[in-house]
C-alpha cells in the first residue's frame, strides 16, 4: 500500500464490499456522517459491546448496568452545561462557502509540521547509518526549529481555547496562513460558537411543544439515576453504573469515516467514590482500561495515553487513550475524574438531594465520579483498521485478510463441504447443527474451496472446517486457521473442544 491515505480508502471500501458498513440512505446519495452497519458489521459491533459489558459489569461485582432513554428532561442539559457550553468554534471560507472547525484547522496545521519532523527524522536516521555527519547536523537543526514552532503554536492555541477567545482563534488562522483546502484562499469569516446538540419538539401541538434534545452523551442518564440504582441495588461506595447507548452530535467536521459521526454509540461507566479518593480510582481505571485494550492482542505500540494539560473546570484529572488509526494517533477513549460537578449541578437544578450516607464514616456527601467513556464505532474502526491486511503469498497470489481478534470476529467458523456430492453437504450440515448452539457459523458450498477460504479471510473468520473424502471414510475433518493458513485434521467429535480453547 503506497501510503496511509490509500490504506484508509481500501479499508473503507472493504468495509462496504463485505457487508460491514454502508453509508446511510445510500440510494438517496447518503447522509453525511451517518452510517449503517451491515450483516457482519452488526456482529462485530455486538461482540465489541459484549466484550466491554463483560469486562465492566460481569467481572466487577460493584458495577451494574442500566439502559436509560435517549430523550430526557431538557433541564438536564442546562444542569450539565451542554446548553451553554457544548460548542465548537466554527469558521466559513467566503469563497468556497465551506464550513470548518477553527480548532481542527489549527490542529491539522500542527499535524502537518509534525509530519515534516517525522520525515526529517527518518531521513536523518538513514544519513546517520551512512555516517553523513554534516547532513545529520543540518537536519537536526531543522527538526529543532520545527519543534519550537509547534510548541509556540500549541501554547498560543491552548490559551485561546481556554479563554474562549474566538477573535484570537481567527487571528491565529490568519497568522499561520492557513488556506481553505477547496478554494485555496484565506478569505475567512469570523469564528462563531456552534452548539452540537440536536433538538426536536416533544408534544402533539407545536404551540405547547417543549424543545428537547437528543442526548449528546449517555453519561447524564447515569447521573440522574444515581440514587435509583444506589437504593434499589443497595450499592455501597465505591460502585459503578455502566451503560451502552446511542448519542447524537451535530459535528461540523464530519469526516474520517466512522471516527466522527453524527449518530454514534458510547460505552460509558461512572464510578462513584468517596471525596478525596478520586485520584486513586482515576489511576485504577487508567490501568484497567489500557489492559482491556491490550488483552485483545493488538500490538501495544498502537496505544498511548494523552494526559490533558488544560482541564475542564469541573475535572481534576483527565486522559485519553489514543490509538494509532491509519490517519495517526487519535482519541479512542476518555478517562475523566469529574469531581462531584454533575451530581451537585443536578441537585441544584432539580432541587432533589443526590447524596450518599456512608455508614463507615457516618457522613453524608455528594460522591465524586471517575468516568470511562469509549465510542463503540471508534473502537470498531480501531479493531477493523488494525485487522485489515493485504498479503502476498509464497505462490505470488494475494489475499486480503481481516486478522480480527477471534473473540470479536463476526463469524467464528465456516463449514465447507469440499464438493457438492458424495454425502459431503449432508455431513457438513450435521457439523453445522452441532456447532450452531456454540458459535455463529456459516455454511458455504459455492465455488472452489480456495475462493471460499478467501471469502472467509476477507470477513475475518478465524476457522474453516472442511469436509472431504477422508471425512466420509474416518469421520475426521480439516481445521484451517485464518492467520497461518495451516490445516490439521481432527475427529469431528473433537471440533467443539478444540475450538472452545481457541475462541
Ligand atoms: N461523557 C464523556 C464524553 O462523552 P467525549 O470525549 O466527548 O466524552 C467519549 O466522548 C468518547 O465517545 C470518545 O472518546 C469517542 O470514542 C466517542 N465519540 C465522541 N464523539 C464521537 C463522534 N462524533 N463519533 C464517534 N464517536 C465519538
Looking at the overall shape, the CATH architecture of the largest domain is 2-Layer Sandwich
Number of helices: 16
The hetero molecules present are: glycyl-adenosine-5'-phosphate
CATH class membership of the largest domain: Alpha Beta
Strands, total number: 23
The coarse silhouette is: globular
* Unreliable residue stretches: none
Mean pLDDT: 93
Q: What's the CATH topology label of the largest domain? A: BirA Bifunctional Protein, domain 2
Beta-strand share of residues: 15-25%
Query: Nearest-angstrom radius of gyration?
Result: 27 Å
Protein traits:
about 500 residues, alpha+beta, BirA Bifunctional Protein, domain 2, Herpes Virus-1, Rossmann fold, seven-stranded mixed sheet, five-stranded mixed sheet, 23 strands, about 40% helix, about 25% strand, globular, binds glycyl-adenosine-5'-phosphate
Describe the structure.
The protein is α+β, with helices and mostly antiparallel strands and 503 residues long. It has three domains: 39-74 and 196-384, BirA Bifunctional Protein, domain 2; 87-195, Herpes Virus-1 (2-Layer Sandwich), CATH 3.30.40.230; 398-499, Rossmann fold, CATH 3.40.50. It is 40% helix and 25% strand. It has 16 helices and 23 strands. The strands form seven sheets. A seven-stranded mixed beta sheet has the order 3-9-10-16-13-12-11. It has a five-stranded mixed beta sheet with strand order 20-19-21-22-23, sandwiched between helices. It has a three-stranded antiparallel beta sheet with strand order 5-4-6. A hairpin with a 5-residue loop joins strand 22 and strand 23 (487-491). It is globular and about 80 Å long. The model has no long low-confidence stretch (mean pLDDT 93). It binds glycyl-adenosine-5'-phosphate. The site of glycyl-adenosine-5'-phosphate has 19 residues, from strand 10, strand 13, strand 16 and helix 12. Residues 217, 219, 249, 251, 260-261, 264, 266, 268, 331-334, 371, 373-375, 377-378 line the site of glycyl-adenosine-5'-phosphate.
Amino acid at each position: 500500500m503506497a501510503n496511509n491515505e490509500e490504506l484508509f480508502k481500501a479499508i473503507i471500501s472493504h468495509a462496504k464490499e463485505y457487508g460491514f458498513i454502508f453509508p446511510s440512505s445510500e440510494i438517496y446519495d447518503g447522509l453525511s456522517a451517518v452510517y449503517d452497519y451491515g450483516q457482519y458489521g452488526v456482529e462485530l459491533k455486538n461482540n465489541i459491546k459484549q466484550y466491554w459489558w463483560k469486562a465492566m459489569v460481569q467481572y466487577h461485582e460493584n458495577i451494574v448496568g442500566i439502559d436509560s432513554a435517549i430523550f430526557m428532561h431538557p433541564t438536564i442539559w442546562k444542569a450539565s452545561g451542554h446548553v451553554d457550553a457544548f460548542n465548537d468554534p466554527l469558521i466559513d471560507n467566503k469563497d468556497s462557502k465551506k464550513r470548518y472547525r477553527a480548532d481542527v484547522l489549527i490542529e491539522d496545521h500542527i499535524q502537518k509540521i509534525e509530519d515534516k519532523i517525522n520525515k526529517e527524522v527518518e531521513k536523518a536516521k538513514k544519513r546517520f547509518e551512512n555516517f553523513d555527519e554534516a547532513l545529520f547536523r543540518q537536519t537536526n537543526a531543522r527538526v529543532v526549529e520545527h519543534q519550537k514552532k509547534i510548541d509556540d503554536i500549541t501554547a498560543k492555541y491552548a490559551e485561546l481555547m481556554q479563554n474562549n477567545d474566538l477573535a484570537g482563534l481567527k487571528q491565529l488562522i490568519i497568522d499561520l496562513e492557513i488556506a481553505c483546502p477547496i478554494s485555496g484562499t484565506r478569505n475567512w469569516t469570523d469564528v462563531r460558537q456552534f452548539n452540537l446538540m440536536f433538538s426536536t419538539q416533544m408534544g402533539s401541538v407545536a404551540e405547547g411543544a417543549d424543545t428537547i434534545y437528543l442526548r449528546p452523551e449517555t453519561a447524564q442518564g447515569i447521573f440522574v439515576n444515581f440514587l435509583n440504582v444506589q437504593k434499589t441495588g443497595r450499592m455501597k461506595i465505591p460502585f459503578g453504573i455502566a451503560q451502552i447507548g446511542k448519542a447524537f452530535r451535530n459535528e461540523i467536521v464530519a469526516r474520517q469515516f466512522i471516527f466522527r459521526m453524527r449518530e454514534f454509540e458510547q460505552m460509558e461507566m461512572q464510578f462513584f467514590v468517596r471525596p478525596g479518593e478520586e485520584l486513586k480510582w482515576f489511576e485504577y481505571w487508567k490501568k484497567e482500561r489500557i489492559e482491556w485494550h491490550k488483552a485483545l492482542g493488538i500490538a501495544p505500540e498502537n496505544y498511548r495515553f494523552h494526559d490533558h494539560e488544560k482541564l475542564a473546570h469541573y475535572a481534576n484529572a483527565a486522559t485519553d487513550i489514543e490509538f494509532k488509526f491509519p490517519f495517526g494517533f487519535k482519541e479512542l477513549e476518555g478517562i475523566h475524574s469529574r469531581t462531584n460537578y454533575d451530581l451537585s449541578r443536578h441537585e441544584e437544578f432539580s432541587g432533589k438531594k443526590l447524596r450518599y450516607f456512608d455508614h463507615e464514616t457516618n457522613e453524608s456527601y455528594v460522591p465524586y465520579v471517575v468516568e470511562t467513556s469509549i465510542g463503540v464505532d471508534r473502537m470498531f474502526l480501531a479493531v477493523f483498521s488494525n485487522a485489515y491486511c493485504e498479503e502476498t503469498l509464497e505462490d505470488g497470489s494475494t489475499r486480503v485478510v481481516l486478522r480480527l481478534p477471534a473473540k470479536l470476529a463476526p463469524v467464528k467458523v465456516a463449514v465447507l463441504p469440499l464438493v457438492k456430492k458424495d454425502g459431503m453437504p449432508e455431513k457438513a450440515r450435521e457439523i453445522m447443527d452441532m456447532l450452531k448452539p456454540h458459535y455463529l457459523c456459516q455454511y458455504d458450498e459455492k465455488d472452489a474451496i480456495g475462493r471460499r477460504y478467501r471469502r472467509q479471510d476477507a470477513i475475518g473468520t478465524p476457522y474453516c472446517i472442511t469436509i472431504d473424502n477422508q471425512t466420509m471414510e474416518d469421520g475426521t475433518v480439516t481445521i484451517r486457521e485464518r492467520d497461518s493458513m495451516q490445516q490439521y485434521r481432527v475427529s469431528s467429535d473433537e471440533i467443539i473442544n478444540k475450538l472452545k480453547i481457541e475462541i
